[in-house]
């Protein structure tokens, strides 16, 4: 029965502490058996008497370090060394004594609880530990008590839970509390050990205080020149609460300045900023009164019985006078004047005045930077604007000037206003030809033949639009005019047949009048030239030859070709105008294409002097054109249909040479028109005209 031994910890005696005795049934007391001890602390902490089996502890033990020791014992024959019994295991258990005081898990606790909380509201729980054996006696049985913090807080003895003990604790009166809690073992009895901890408790804020203005009336001042949106001043209601519980919203709820001022809340300072909503006028109103309300943005329904969470105050705003510049009656002026009004006539007037209480006199002037021609003048006293020069609507229909109004007593105070003067039209311009007309009449023309349609322009602008009338200033035996009643007229032949040899040029005076008041009219002369017109081709060639003169090619460089279109905005015509139709090639099919020059660069030689013009059989040109057109339409190497090449010169590979005025007479030698006689009967009259002219000139 020795398999359990008990030993009291913290032995303080001078001798070794006796543990117990081992004994074997095989030990007859004759000294033949010895006892051997092995295991935890055997031979050092625990010693055994090998003859008697008594076990002693050599030093004091601490249960909190080790609660029990496991050892093995065996009885052995001294002579043979053999065990007389099997080895047995036993335990030495250390008995606890109350040698450890309770210790809290934290040296200091931090907790918070809302102010105005009910009695018994949970605050925090504290916990202490005792290293003694909780299963043996009361050494580890703890009891909590409050040493400091009454009567505000209490602690539950068994759990260590701290609760509020006083109702309506107000943060605004006292915010922080320090509570000391004790934990004592031995169930709190006398002689028990104890430990303490500190609990720092803060009352958190609730919205239990309404905002309050420290004064009932505020006085603010502002200048009448203050800008819209600018701050006039600040007011502030105090709130004992913190954070969102102290947030305030300011509003104007009454007063004669509600339309002129506004109030906003500065979130950082919780102040009400009074700002200007509209422009002030000292002369109109000098004092304004506002009733401003300050209210909490968040209200706790638990504390509504504390009263309304808002307050009001009166704000008196005084407007201060400043010297203001003159004020015009309008932001801008628009005036009308007829262009035929006499110099010195009054067009209109502007009005300005001093808005200040002094009502100083105002003088007017024109900003001459806006009237460089000095067309207008203004009366410095009454602001009437008059003309210094005659106006011409056709030269300028609007005049925009700036008028300056200046206080006589303070020239620095000035204002400007734009004045827009519209010049009204007067029918003072006669209609005239819309363009220069180049009119021709054929020798073989018939009577009543239309040879020209003319129109007119008028720089005036009547309200109902232009209406022109055309007539001849006298009876003309050769030509007549027909008014088309659409602001155009037709020039007709009055007789059949004209002779260029008798008179090559006719001058026809045409009278053009308008329908406005006063009626304006003018006489324009139409130049009509007589030409020999056997066929359409002769008309075209004649027109070209008549204008024949040397022109510089428009293509200066082959680099001046853009994309796939070359446009010269000049007249075409002639044999080598396009790649597809070459009169020389049509009349001479045997001429090879290799003899042709490129038409998109300047050729080395434009037009030589007169050369022979061999033409075979005088074949009809139309047939050659149709034949050549068919060949090119079926030629895969021909230019595509979306390709356009226009040239300002005729080329130099043509057998018939150029028929156009372009690039004619490229050298200093005179043109010789004898070759025209070789072109066939269709060009006979043309040849007679120019060969005959050369003959007359030579003679």
TrEMBL record:
Signal peptide annotation: none
Entry protein name: Cadherin-10
Domain Cadherin: 24-104, 105-213, 214-328, 329-433, 433-555
Source organism (scientific name): Polypterus senegalus (Senegal bichir)
A GO biological process held by the record: adherens junction organization
Parts of the chain that traverse the membrane: none
Localization of this protein: Cell membrane
Lineage, highest ranks first: Eukaryota, Metazoa, Chordata, Craniata, Vertebrata
Pfam families named among the record's database cross-references: CADH_Y-type_LIR, Cadherin
Matching PANTHER family: CADHERIN-23, CADHERIN-6
């Amino acid at each position: 029965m020795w398999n359990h031994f008990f030993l009291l910890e913290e032995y303080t005696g001078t001798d070794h502490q006796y543990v117990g005795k081992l004994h074997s049934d095989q030990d007859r007391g004759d000294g033949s058996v010895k006892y051997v001890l092995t295991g935890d602390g055997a031979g050092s902490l625990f010693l055994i008497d090998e003859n008697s089996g008594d076990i002693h502890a050599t030093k004091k033990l601490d249960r909190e370090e080790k609660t029990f020791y496991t050892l093995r014992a065996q009885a052995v024959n001294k002579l043979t060394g053999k065990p007389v019994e099997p080895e047995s295991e036993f335990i030495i258990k250390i008995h606890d004594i109350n040698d450890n005081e309770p210790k809290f898990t934290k040296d200091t606790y931090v907790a918070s609880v809302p102010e105005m909380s009910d009695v018994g509201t949970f605050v925090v729980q504290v916990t202490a530990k005792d290293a003694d054996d909780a299963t043996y006696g009361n050494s580890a049985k703890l009891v909590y008590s409050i040493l400091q913090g009454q009567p505000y807080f209490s602690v539950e003895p068994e759990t260590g839970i701290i609760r509020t003990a006083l109702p309506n604790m107000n943060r605004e009166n006292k915010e922080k509390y320090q509570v000391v809690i004790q934990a004592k073992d031995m169930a709190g009895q006398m002689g028990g050990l104890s430990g303490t901890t500190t609990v720092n408790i803060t009352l958190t804020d609730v919205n239990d205080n309404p905002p309050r203005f420290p004064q009932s009336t505020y006085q603010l001042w502002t200048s009448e020149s203050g800008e819209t949106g600018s701050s006039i001043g600040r007011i502030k209601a105090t709130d004992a609460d913190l954070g969102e519980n102290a947030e305030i919203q300011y509003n104007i709820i009454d007063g004669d300045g509600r339309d002129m001022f506004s109030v906003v809340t500065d979130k950082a300072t919780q102040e009400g900023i009074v700002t200007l909503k509209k422009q002030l006028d000292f002369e109109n109103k000098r004092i304004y009164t506002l009733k401003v309300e300050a209210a909490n943005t968040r209200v706790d329904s638990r504390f509504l019985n504390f009263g309304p969470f808002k307050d009001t105050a009166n704000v008196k705003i005084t407007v201060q006078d400043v010297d203001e510049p003159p004020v015009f009656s309008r932001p801008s002026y628009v005036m009308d004047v007829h262009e035929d009004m006499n110099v010195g006539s009054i067009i209109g007037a502007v009005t300005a005045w001093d808005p200040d209480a002094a009502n100083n006199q105002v003088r007017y002037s024109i900003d001459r930077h806006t009237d460089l021609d000095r067309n207008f003048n203004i009366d410095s006293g009454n602001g009437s604007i008059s003309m210094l020069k005659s106006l011409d609507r056709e030269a300028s229909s609007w005049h925009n000037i700036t008028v300056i109004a200046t206080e006589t007593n303070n020239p620095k105070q000035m204002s400007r206003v734009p004045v827009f003067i519209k010049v009204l039209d007067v029918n003072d311009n006669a209609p005239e030809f819309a363009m220069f007309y180049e009119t021709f009449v054929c020798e073989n023309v018939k009577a009543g033949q239309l040879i020209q349609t003319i129109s007119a322009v008028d720089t005036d602008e009547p309200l109902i639009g232009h209406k022109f009338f055309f007539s001849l200033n006298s009876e003309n035996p050769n030509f007549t005019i027909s008014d088309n009643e659409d602001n155009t007229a037709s020039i007709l032949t009055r007789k059949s047949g004209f002779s260029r040899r008798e008179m090559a040029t006719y001058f026809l005076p045409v009278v053009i009048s308008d329908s406005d008041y006063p009626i304006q009219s003018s006489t324009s002369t139409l130049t009509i030239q007589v030409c020999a017109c056997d066929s359409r081709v002769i008309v075209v060639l004649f027109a070209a030859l008549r204008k024949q003169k040397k022109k510089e090619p428009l293509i200066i460089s082959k680099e001046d070709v853009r994309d796939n279109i070359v446009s010269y905005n000049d007249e075409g015509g002639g044999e080598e105008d396009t790649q597809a139709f070459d009169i020389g090639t049509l009349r001479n099919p045997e001429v090879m294409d290799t003899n042709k020059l490129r038409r998109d660069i300047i050729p080395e030689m434009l037009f030589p002097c007169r050369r022979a013009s061999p033409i075979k059989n005088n074949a009809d040109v139309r047939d050659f054109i149709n034949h050549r057109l068919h060949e090119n339409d079926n030629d895969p190497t021909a230019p595509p249909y979306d390709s356009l090449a226009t040239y300002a010169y005729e080329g130099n590979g043509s057998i018939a040479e150029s028929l156009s005025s372009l690039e004619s007479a490229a050298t200093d030698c005179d043109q010789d028109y004898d070759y025209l006689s070789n072109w066939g009967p269709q060009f006979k009259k043309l040849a007679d005209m120019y060969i005959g002219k050369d003959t007359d000139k030579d003679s």
